[in-house]
Amino acid sequence: MKILGISFSPRKNGNTVAMLTEALNAAEAAGAEVELYSVNGKNLQPCDGCWSCVKTGRCHIKDDMEALHDKMLAAEGIVFGTPVYFYGMTAQAKTVIDRSLGLVTPERNLANKVCGVVSSCGSLGMIDAIKDFTYYIFTRHMLPANHVSAYMSISGGLDKMPKCRQCLNDLGKQMVALVNIGFKYPPEYIKGPSAFGTHTM
Ligand SMILES: Cc1cc2nc3c(=O)[nH]c(=O)nc-3n(C[C@H](O)[C@H](O)[C@H](O)COP(=O)(O)O)c2cc1C
After folding, report:
1. How many angstroms separate the CA atoms of 84 and 126, rounded?
2. Positions of E strands within 62-169
3. Ligand 1, CB within 6 Å, residue ranges
4. Alpha carbon nearest to ligand 1 atom 9, residue
5. 10 Å Cβ neighbour count for 159?
6. Which residues pair with 120 in a beta bridge?
7. Which backbone phi and psi does 22 adopt, to 5 degrees?
8. What is the mean pLDDT of the chain?
9. Residue 24 and residue 195: Cα distance in Å, rounded?
10. Strand stretches in 18-169, DSSP E
11. CA-closest residue to ligand 1 atom 4
């Protein structure tokens, strides 16, 4: 079982990476093969809205995104981690989400992946960041595990936050337990893009 943690912080070794590392270590101790990916230093261009990926399952923009998509597709569980930037996720997080629009083909899709979310902030906006990941998880037919948010930058880091550390450990273990259950949406529910536009019909 593979669990991938993705840090959407531009900082190489910031609070988000610390939180993800804690959760991934717990998942590893529970038996998972884990990997931490950081957007730091990567070339990840924004979506250009061409929609061609929905037919092919692949984005035509040639940068570091396809390698990240391959890692996401290979994992049974993904922990998304973002700092809060202006009451929401970082631009890097949104870029990765937008560019995964085409991951809905029978061969390349995110359905049934167990997802956790961690967010690190200074004062306000964590709920907004988590909320946006929740919609993402819904629309891709992924499965929510839990989320952990922390006022990391005013609290002196994870070492000073034992409750947060415990929650991250629980999340890591929970991810493994949920993947082990092996829940799968019935195939008829995961065909194509979902949850768009039912109000327009
Ligand atoms: C551009 C920018 C915008 C930010 N906006 C917010 C915000 O709206 N709310 C908040 O609580 N913290 C905000 N912060 C603080 C970060 O969320 C916080 O320092 C976080 O712990 C950084 O995580 P990292 O070390 O993983 O990068 C902002 C930081 C930056 C650089």
Report:
1. 6
2. 77-83, 114-120, 143-150
3. 9, 11, 14-16, 83-87, 120-125, 152-153
4. 124
5. 9
6. 83, 150
7. -60, -45
8. 93
9. 30
10. 33-38, 77-83, 114-120, 143-150
11. 85
